[in-house]
Here is the input.
Amino acid sequence: MDPRTFNRFAQLVYARCGIVLTEKKEALVQARVGKRMRQLGMKDFADYFRLVEADANGDETVHLLDVISTNVTSFYREARHFEVLTELLRKWEQAGQTTFRIWCAAASTGEEPYTIAFTVRDALHNGTDARILATDISTRVLGRARAAVYTARDLEKVPRPVVNKYFQRQHSADANGGPETYSVVPEVRNMITFARLNLATPPFPMRGPFDVVFCRNVMIYFDDAIRTRLLADCYRLLRPGGYLMVGHAESLTGILSEFKSVEPAVYIKK
Here is the structure.
C-alpha cells in the first residue's frame, strides 16, 4: 500500500466513523486490509478502496472497520466501575428509585453489557425495572453479543458464583478441538437491547435520560473534536446526578468542563 492510498483510507475511515489512523498504523492497516482483500480475491489496494468508497449500504465499510479495529474486551474489565455501579444502584434504590436505565456505548462482543447486567441483578431487589442499551458500530460484533455464547476461556476471570448463576453450559469440549461453551441465561439477555450506533455522529437518536453511561476505551480512537461532541451528547442524555464511566487510560481534562470528576475514570453530571 503506497502512502497516497493509505491516506485515502485514513480520510475515509475518519469521515465515516471518526477513527484516527496515524502513519504509525500504516503497516497494521496494510496487513489487515490485505487479509480482507484475499477473502474477496482482490490484489490491488486501490481497487479495494474504490469498492469501500462506493459501498452504498455500508456492508463493506463495516468489514473494513472490523479488520482495522481491535476489539479488546473481557468480563469485569476495569472492575472498579462495577463496584461503583453497585454502590450507586443500592443508594438510588434505597432512596425509592425503581426504574434504572444504563447505556453501554461500545458493547463490542457483549462482555461489558452482560457484566453490567450481572451487576444490576446482584445489586437490586427483584421487581425493579432495569434496562440496558448496548451499542456498537460493528454489526459483526453485535451479532456475537446477541448470540451471548462464550467459551470457557472467556469466562476464566468471571467469579464462579456468577458463572453458576448467569450462564448455562451449551457444549462440552470435544475430541475435534471444539471448545466448551456457555450461554448467558435468558433473563439476563432480555435486559439488554443491542443496536448499531456510530459514536462519531452525535446527536444520537435515543431519548434518555440514563442513570449511568459506560463509554469506556473508545475515545482513544477519536480526536479532540469528536471526543468533545461525543461527551456533550453523553452529558445531554444523562439525568442530573447521573454518572459517566470512561476507560482508566482516558481523561476528560480539558475536553468538557460540565462533568465533575468523582474518582479516576468516574464522572458525575452536575
